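Complex record, two chains
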Amino acid sequence: MKQEITIVKIGGNVVDDASTLEKVLQEFSQISGPKVLVHGGGKIASDLSVKLGIQPKMVEGRRITDEESLKVVMMAYGGLVNKGIVAQLQAMGCNALGLTGADANIIPAHKRNSGEIDYGYVGDFNIEDIDTARLQFLINGELTPVFCALTHDQQGSMLNTNADTLASGLAISLAKHYHPKLVYCFEKQGVLLDSEDDATLIRELNYLHYQQLKDDGIIHNGMIPKLDNAFAARDKGVKVVIKHALELSKPAGTVLA
Amino acid sequence: MKQEITIVKIGGNVVDDASTLEKVLQEFSQISGPKVLVHGGGKIASDLSVKLGIQPKMVEGRRITDEESLKVVMMAYGGLVNKGIVAQLQAMGCNALGLTGADANIIPAHKRNSGEIDYGYVGDFNIEDIDTARLQFLINGELTPVFCALTHDQQGSMLNTNADTLASGLAISLAKHYHPKLVYCFEKQGVLLDSEDDATLIRELNYLHYQQLKDDGIIHNGMIPKLDNAFAARDKGVKVVIKHALELSKPAGTVLA
């Protein structure tokens, strides 16, 4: 019988605030059973870029990860944020192992091939390429993988990758060995009809309803890629919840139907 | 019967030069049998400090790792250098796993307790605290650990640690399960009587001879802590070689007798 596994994605706003991050990690450390943490980088990479005088490079309105920007995300996500989280989880008794997709070759990827725009060092991966056996080996060794959103091109370079997509991909691929539960944590109570009003929380959201809310302009901006990733996982049998980071241990948020 | 394991430490000068680093990693990737890489950080951390306007903090002539400097080494060693090496090794067919001492709690440490000077976030560890069973678990999983010189205080903070000491400590602790061979690689041919003349290479060096060369001022500066670490490992039965980074695959350098 397959065991349950919890994949928690924490967003940039959680990572940016030391006190929130500590509370969330405390709750995460207490989740029983196998678990995986995926974190975004928040403003740390942008702040570091500014301090280093690296200008964001845009082509046709899209942000490009050039070589200098790649170094910044490697430092910010792979070093500062990831290792900071690992040290904190260790202090909470959770045997964390910080990973990028390059480590143990768990998430081999390739540079985004978009045809028209060269996004630079941005990585996309095929879910079927994720080495779930390797991940299971680490988890069976009572380790808790902590992923930052970096993958690699298999040719010697790291690649910047979307953290929501990485979390969703890991959850889908882990369904081979486990019953995955994917929890997207952020600074809101879940999917809201009015993004400024927590009382408008949608407790259960199905795909048709989501499409309708998107068409009506009620769900917009950053929530769309997040929900697309969430529904991609839901579609493959993953349980998905979108909730406030400080409600990790509570039955709260928006459940995808 | 115990298997041989090779622990290679590459110094800052190797890490700083992209072309040298690539050649050394190529040779490292071809070492057969279990192996571990330990790398220093080189000038990358100092350069980053300068760019970020962080002044090196000195107390009584000793460098202090304050909170800002700790962030810099976490970014430079744990992020940029470590993940860059992992991506390169993966491209060479070596299944590298980037680690700090906090990851999987392999090297629990504590802040340096020197009595008089507070060195800040500088870590010392007891060799007997290294979790060699965990390390063996990863190595048995056909992974190649790549350590940067960071440990953690078990209270939520990473600590800056000397890379030579870390390599020596790992080699000594791995003697429980393997026959360790420790290779210190740097930009010289080995231990030289005249640091500017490769022809003065000492092919075999014993402890008494080392003490004498130290007393005579022939071996000095940075070589002393390196050799102290090297002899500490030799004393525990570890084979130790000090050689040029580009001679990794050749029977060259100074062997400790």
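Note: The radius of gyration of chain B is 18 Å.
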